[in-house]
């Protein structure tokens, strides 16, 4: 894991300072004066002067960086610019270069995973989509750990496999829903998760969640487990509403059943008892992945 601030410290600052030290020396400042002006040691200035500091080509050749170096060097050398103003101008440029620019590209180079999010975004923005999507994936991971570590969970997995999904707040499509790539299967009595949660990898359970949301349910997570009358009864006894739907009905049977049921408990159950070539399944839906895992846990405790 590498922070964009590390890119600034390790890539930008050595290059920028060496360029600035060089520009100040050309304007007649001694090594001692350059060191005092930049707030660094004379040995650092000496290293800059002798090319002993690695400089990043992308920064060294950036016209905006070169222009700022000349502007700041001239201002500091003449006394027209204070160190505070020089710092502010440099910070402004850094923020600009972090946003879908050269520092963003260097950050993606160090953290290739960032490129999967439609290009670089300001990851330090508390309102960013990246932060929200990673929080959703994290919630799925935590709930999966709870379930796969729980004794007996594998016995709840249907023949078609299970999936645990969670969605973004304004989810309207499968790509807005994170789940397990492939499905969770029972392998010799052990629940096996094939990969890290991703968005857009669940068609079936994600569609169930989206249908329920489209009918007005305030659910953001769901899981499918096998159907058994006792499973539904246990969940109802625990205080969860249960809604049956016909998997062979035309239209969107889940949405219609949820809409017809009226207000439901925060975490609730949708189930179908099977049909021609259709395995009976129970779906547990809730406000988040943790709430869904808690409901499934009640089944494991009996």
From TrEMBL:
Signal sequence segment: none
Xref: Pfam families: HTH_3, ThiN
Annotated InterPro entries: Aldolase_II/adducin_N_sf, Cro/C1-type_HTH, Lambda_DNA-bd_dom_sf, ThiN
Single annotated GO MF: DNA binding
Residue span, HTH cro/C1-type domain: 20-48
Superkingdom per UniProt: Archaea
SMART domains named in the record: HTH_XRE (SM00530)
Protein name: Helix-turn-helix domain-containing protein
Native species: Halobellus ruber
């Amino acid at each position: 894991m590498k922070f964009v601030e590390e890119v600034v410290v390790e890539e930008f600052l050595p290059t920028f300072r060496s360029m600035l030290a060089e520009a100040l020396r050309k304007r007649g400042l001694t090594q001692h004066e350059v060191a005092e002006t930049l707030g660094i040691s004379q040995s650092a200035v000496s290293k800059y002067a002798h090319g002993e500091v690695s400089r990043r080509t992308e920064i060294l050749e950036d016209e905006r960086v070169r222009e700022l170096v000349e502007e700041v060097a001239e201002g500091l050398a003449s006394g027209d610019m204070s160190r505070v103003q020089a710092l502010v101008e440099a910070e402004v440029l850094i923020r600009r270069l972090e946003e879908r620019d050269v520092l963003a590209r260097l950050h993606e180079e160090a953290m290739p995973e960032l490129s999967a999010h439609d290009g670089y975004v300001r990851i330090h923005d508390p309102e960013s989509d990246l932060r929200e999507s990673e929080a959703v994936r994290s919630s799925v991971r935590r709930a999966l750990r709870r379930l796969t570590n729980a004794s007996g969970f594998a016995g709840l997995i249907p023949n078609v496999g299970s999936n645990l999904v969670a969605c973004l707040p304004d989810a309207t499509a499968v790509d807005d829903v994170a789940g397990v790539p492939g499905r969770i299967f029972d392998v010799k009595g052990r629940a096996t998760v094939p990969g890290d949660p991703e968005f857009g990898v669940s068609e079936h359970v994600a569609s169930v969640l989206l249908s329920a949301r489209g009918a007005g349910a305030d659910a953001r997570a769901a899981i499918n487990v096998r159907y058994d009358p006792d499973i539904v009864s246990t969940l109802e006894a625990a205080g969860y509403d249960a809604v049956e739907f016909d998997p062979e009905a035309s239209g969107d049977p889940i949405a219609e059943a949820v809409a017809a049921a009226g207000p439901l408990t925060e975490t609730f159950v949708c189930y179908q008892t099977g049909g021609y070539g259709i395995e009976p399944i129970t779906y547990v839906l809730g406000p988040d992945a943790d709430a869904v895992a808690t409901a499934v846990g009640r089944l494991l405790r009996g």
